[in-house]
Amino acid sequence: MATVGPIMLPLAHIFIPGEKMPLHRFVGFTIDFAGVLILGVH
User: Fold this and answer.
1) Residues near 21 by beta carbon (within 8 Å), at least 6 away in sequence
2) What is the largest CA-CA distance in the chain?
3) Separation between Cα atoms, residue 5 and residue 13, nearest integer Å
4) Residue-by-residue pLDDT tens, the chain, 42 positions
5) pTM
């Protein structure tokens, strides 16, 4: 369930015309995905 957000952001960027991924969204996505990975490993 925690991976829905990190998966949907890049998909929206790819499949929705005009949807941009500015730097602050990319940084947030990276931090979010790293958090999910850390929680998944432990």
Assistant:
1) 9, 10, 13, 29
2) 38
3) 13
4) 667 777 888 888 889 998 888 999 889 888 988 888 898 887
5) 0.65
